[in-house]
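#structure-requests
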Amino acid sequence: MSQRLHQAQPYALGLFRIVVGLLFACHGAASLFGVLGGAMGGGTVPTGTWPGWYAAVIQLVCGGLVLIGLGTRGAAFIASGSMAYAYFWAHQSEALFPLQNGGETAALFCWAFALLIFTGPGGLALDALFGQKGTKGARDGRDAQDPEKQGTPVAA
């Protein structure tokens, strides 16, 4: 059972990335274009206003990039940072915990994108088409097919 779960891990991570990216992009589209209920229950964010309009652009662009798996780590880094900023700037002053200050969404997006920074895009990503193919060993000069030339794997 453990072996099968391990084999499915890249696809589960890819599905996680797709869902998180889609949800994040929807927030940006709602704020910029008034779709899906619009910003704050209706309407759009006025163009160029700080920080709402810029946050919506980040949500739409980075969410879209994460969704398709293109430049995933960089887009996730920017998205995670923007959600950390949103949490501490807009929510933290209201109360200490996210449940009290309404910042659950910002906190969850921040940590979900932080996870993608470190794990990468998983399966089903365009990064695989445009990036180096093969394992880490092939990218850093070691022969991916020869186990003796690879480093010792680290297990947690």
